Amino acid sequence: MITLGTPLDQEQKRVRNSSEIHEIGRMIGEMPYISEHLTSLRQEIADLRDLNARLSEKGGHTAVDQTALELRTARLREIKQELSKILNRPDDPKVWWERSRRPQQPA
To answer: What stretch of H or E contains 55?
Structure first.
């Protein structure tokens, strides 16, 4: 005879499965944000590379040009770190999702 567990065990499993399904649904709901965020980062990288290419074609560099180049390089490093964090997200999805919701700093 196969025992399926007590009614209390079955109810606990149902509640646990229900909360897991809810969590998966919540995570799927966040997917458009991630896609939009990645698209935004790609565009920012393209813009920064374009500005750097224009600077290299320009020739003579002023102190302002050099400072702007350093700021763009620093921003590219920040984007690289951000992408690395996305790839190496923690095991607990709550931590990762909360990090992804933080407002962006202006470039």
So the answer is: helix 7-58
